Amino acid sequence: MSGRPILTAAAMRAAEAACMAGGTDAGVLMERAGASVAEATWRFAAGAPTLVLCGPGNNGGDGYVVARMLRERGVDVTVAVLGPPRSSHALAARAAWGGPVVALDDAPTRAVLVDALFGTGLARGLEPAVAAALVRLAGAARVRIAVDLPSGVATDDGATFGTELPTYDMTVALGALKPAHRLQPAAALCGRVVVADIGVAVASSELTAIGRPSLPAPGAEDHKYTRGMVAVLSGAMGGAALLAATAAQRTGAGYVVLAGGASAGGLHALVHRQGTEVLGDARVDAVLCGPGLGRGAAAERTLVAALACGRPLVLDADALRLASPAVLRGLAVPAIVTPHGGEFEHLFGALPGSRIDRARAAAAMAQCVVVLKGADTVIAAPDGRVAIADPAPAWLATAGTGDVLAGLVAAMRARIDDPFAAAQAAVWLHGAAAEAAGAVLVADDLLDMIRKVVSACQ
C-alpha cells in the first residue's frame, strides 16, 4: 500500500468516467471487478460454500459476477438480493449469473459471505432490517469478504452512521484505496485490505497512503552532525522528554542534546545541557519542544526561545497548549505539530468535516505540517497534501508513546528537508515499531524496536 493514492467517491467516479470515455465499457469494468473479488475469495476461502449478497446498484452487479465466476470453479454459491438491479450493466450481470436468487431476509447462512450490497458513494446508513440481516449472516460465516467497502460505511469520512455493522476478514478495494479504508470507525471493519487493479487509471492524488520510507544508510563521509543534530527541550516532567530524546537517538540522529531541565539518565551518548543555549548552535537541525514541558512561566519562556531560534521545530504535548496558529504561521521555517484530538481542538478549535478536512484546514491556518494522531493518524501539509497511516495497533494507547513519536519526528526532520515527508516517515516507523513490540507494550518497549525497523528501511 506504500504511497498509494486514496480516492474520494467523487474522484473514483471521475476516474471511472475517464476510463469509459477512453473506450472501456462499464460492463468490462464490472467483469474485471467481479473477477478480482472472485479470485481473492477463491484463494482466501478455499472453495467453501459461499453466500453472495447483491445490492441494487453496480456494487451488486459486481456481486453477480463474483457468484458466476465462483460457480464456474465448482463452488456451491447462493445469491441473496436486496432488490432488482437498477442499472443496465447490473441487469446484464444478473442475467449472466442465470441462477436462482433469494431475498435477503430469506438468505441461508454459509461458510463464506461476500458482501456486495453497497460500495463507494453511500450517503446514508443501512435500513435497520438490512443491517440486522447483514449482521446475522456475517455472524454465521467463517470468512467475510467485502466488495470495495463494507456495506453501510461512508466512503469519504469512514462514518458508520451509528449503525451496528459486522467486521470483515478482507476488503477488496476496487481500483484504488478510499478514505474509509483508513479512517475510523470504518477501517476497523475492513480487515485486510487489498487493492484490485480493474484497469482504471488512477492519477496522482493530494490524498495518499503513508508508505514505508527509504532511509539511506550512513556513508563513509558521514559524521555525527551530517546524520542530524536534535535538541530536545525538557521541562517539568523530565521522563517524557527523555523518552523523546532516546527515540531520536534510536532513529539514527547523530547527536542528541536534552536541554532545559534537570533530567538525568538515558543512554550514555545522550548529551545533557542546562538552559536553552543549545538553540544558538547553528549545527542544530531540528528542535523538539513539548514533551514534559509543563504549562507554567518557565515552560512559556522555553517555548518562546524555541519559536525564536529559527530552526526547524517539532511541537508536541504542552507546547500545543501554549502556542497559537497565528504564532505558528509567522515562523520562518514551517513547524511540525503533533496533536492528539484534544490538543488539536484546543489549538485549532472545533473545525468541521472529516479528520482529513480538519487536518487540512489546520495546516492551512497555521502554515505548518499537522500530524493529527489517533488510531487513524492523518498528516496534512499547508499546500493541501494529506497522507493517512495504516490503522495503528490498539496497544499504542498507553502513556509515553506520543513522546516517542515526537522524538521520531524530530530525528526524521533533522535528516529530511521536507517536513511533510519527515512526518510520514516517523509515523510509519512508529507504527512498525509498535507492531514489532507486540501487545501489552509500554512506551519504553518501542525504543528497543525502533533501531530494527529503521535498519529494515535502509
TrEMBL record:
The keyword Isomerase is annotated on this UniProt entry: yes
UniProt-listed InterPro entries: Carbohydrate_kinase_pred_CS (IPR017953), CARKD (IPR000631), Nnr (IPR030677), Ribokinase-like (IPR029056), YjeF_N_dom (IPR004443), YjeF_N_dom_sf (IPR036652)
Entry's Gene Ontology molecular function annotations: ADP-dependent NAD(P)H-hydrate dehydratase activity; ATP binding; kinase activity; metal ion binding; NAD(P)HX epimerase activity
Recorded catalytic activity of this chain's protein: (6S)-NADPHX + ADP = AMP + phosphate + NADPH + H(+); (6R)-NADPHX = (6S)-NADPHX; (6R)-NADHX = (6S)-NADHX; (6S)-NADHX + ADP = AMP + phosphate + NADH + H(+)
EC number: 4.2.1.136, 5.1.99.6
Domain of life: Bacteria
Domain YjeF N-terminal: 12-206
Record text on cofactor binding: Binds 1 potassium ion per subunit.
SUPFAM superfamilies: Ribokinase-like, YjeF N-terminal domain-like
Binding sites annotated in the UniProt record for K(+): 59, 115, 151
Cofactor(s) annotated in UniProt: Mg(2+); K(+)
Any single biological process term in GO: nicotinamide nucleotide metabolic process
YjeF C-terminal domain: residues covered: 207-457
Alphabetically ordered keywords of this record: ATP-binding, Isomerase, Kinase, Lyase, Metal-binding, Multifunctional enzyme, NAD, NADP, Nucleotide-binding, Potassium, Transferase
Residues that hold AMP according to the record: 373-377, 402
Positions contributing to (6S)-NADPHX binding: 58-62, 119-125, 148, 240, 292, 340, 403
Subunit structure: Homotetramer.
Family according to the record: Belongs to the NnrE/AIBP family.
Stated role: Bifunctional enzyme that catalyzes the epimerization of the S- and R-forms of NAD(P)HX and the dehydration of the S-form of NAD(P)HX at the expense of ADP, which is converted to AMP. This allows the repair of both epimers of NAD(P)HX, a damaged form of NAD(P)H that is a result of enzymatic or heat-dependent hydration. Catalyzes the epimerization of the S- and R-forms of NAD(P)HX, a damaged form of NAD(P)H that is a result of enzymatic or heat-dependent hydration. This is a prerequisite for the S-specific NAD(P)H-hydrate dehydratase to allow the repair of both epimers of NAD(P)HX.
Protein name: Bifunctional NAD(P)H-hydrate repair enzyme
Organism the protein comes from: Sphingomonas prati
Gene field: nnrE
